[in-house]
Amino acid sequence: MPERLAANPTPCPSCRSPMQAFTVQSHVGMNLELDLCHACHGIWFDDNENLRMSPQGVVDLFRHLHEHRNDPHAPLAQRMNCPRCRRTLAEGVDVVKSGRYFTHRCPEKHGRFTTFSSFMIEKGFVRQLTAPEISDLAERVKVIHCTSCGAPVDLRQNHACPYCRSALSLLDPTAVARALNSYGQKAQRTEESPRPTDLADALVTIERDRERAKREEQKERWSGNRPDPTAEIAGDLWSAGLDLVWRVLTR
Question: According to the UniProt entry, which residue ranges have a biased composition of type Basic and acidic residues (predicted)?
């Protein structure tokens, strides 16, 4: 489904930039128009839109988020306002089987703002990392970002986020297949969970791609050497997991 700029675009609650409309199918066959901010990796949902998406709508959203998986994103503002009534959004923590996630709701019930990764936790598309995976990442990747609050986590010292205490989780092909089945759509494939080495390699590849893009954008000002891929890396579990899932969905 294409994204487009609406005639009267919804301003992002965090950065205030115009959000982009993205159309997906609802579970009753009608279209839903979601509001996405790629600068903040956030989604604004009107009127329980997060509960009304069809399985095909979720797959379409997967495809779109995968295309933008390497987009840079800014941290969320400390204070965010409802794009409908301008009231300050109330931050809350919701808990589901796959973990805990942050969401920001309008006190007048006009809608809610959530990050891409929090939406996937809500929908059950993630699983918690196993002890062998955490140990492998601690040795090879060292630092990752919490998929719940975005804070850096040094795996050599912490096996959970030291800021929000969320367990470390990953967008995972097996969890996606199970969740899609629970929404009434038969999964086309079932795969074993990614091996620890697959996850670490995905994180390292993502960081190499980001560093390459930075060098191309700043080549006239860049004076350092190419980063050592074995050095400390602030990996993004969200991007790595999305990449692993998309490999399965597109096979």
Answer: 206-223
Residues 6+ apart with CB under 8 A from 202: 194, 240, 243, 244
Share of the chain above pLDDT 70, in %: 71
Helices (H), 68-172: 116-122, 131-140
Provide the 3-class DSSP secondary structure of residue 178.
helix
- How far is 120 from 116, CA to CA, in rounded Å? 7
pLDDT digits (tens, 9 = 90+) for 90-99: 998 888 877 7
Angle at 28 between CA 27 and CA 31, to 5 degrees: 80
d(CA 151, CA 148): 8
CA dihedral for 247, 208, 162, 89, sign (positive or negative): negative
Q: How far, in Å, CA of 122 to CA of 148, rounded? A: 11
Whole-angstrom distance, CA of residue 212 vs CA of residue 224: 13
DSSP structure class, residue 83 = T
Angle formed by the axes of helices 173-182 and 237-249, to 10°?
Answer: 70
What is the β-pairing status of strands 111-115 and 42-46? antiparallel
Helix (H, G, I), strand (E, B) or coil at 78: coil
List, for residues 199-233, the tens digit of each pLDDT value.
667 666 666 666 666 666 666 555 555 444 444 44
**Which phi and psi (to 5°) does residue 210 adopt?**
-65, -40
